[in-house]
Amino acid sequence: MRTESMLFGGVAVFFGGSAALYGVWSGDETGTVALVVACGMAALVSFFCLIQYRRRGSRAQDRAEAEVADGAEPVAFFPDESMFPIVTAFGFALAAGGVVYGLWLFLIGLGVLARGVFGMAYQYAQR
Question: Which ranges of the chain would DSSP assign to H, the alpha helix?
Fold first, then answer.
């Protein structure tokens, strides 16, 4: 994961520098914000990969002398069926409809959407 972290770190630096230069030279807020968001997203992926590298160490793909069999791991877990993707989709549909029909429907949809997202995120937390 160290290589991926450095790669996305370089992408983040590129977008950060581009955002700074673009913001100074063009004066366009929209493009500058888009470049800043791209920099943030690349930095987030770089940070995630770096943390995974520090927690787990190098993988078989990171070593030049590794064999294909070194990267094979046992498949340990397949999730059961879940209702949370349907709850999340329903909450998103309600929230999108709330944009058209009113704040009350949007807030209900936001609550259902939050329940679905947190349900998916913490469904297997006890595992």
Answer: 2-26, 29-56, 84-101, 103-122
Place of tokens 């070194």: 70
As a whole number, mean pLDDT of residues 106-116 equals 95
pLDDT in tens, 59-97: 777 777 877 777 777 766 667 788 999 999 999 999 999
CB-based contacts of 87, cutoff 8 Å, min separation 6: 112, 115, 116, 119
pLDDT band at 44; cut points 50, 70, 90: very high
Q: Angle at which helices 29-56 and 2-26 pack, to 10 degrees?
A: 160
Structure-block tokens of residue 109? 């949809």
Taking the C-alpha atoms of residue 29 and residue 56, their distance in angstroms, rounded to an integer, is 40
**Cα–Cα distance measured from residue 2 to residue 53, given in angstroms and rounded to the nearest whole number:** 6
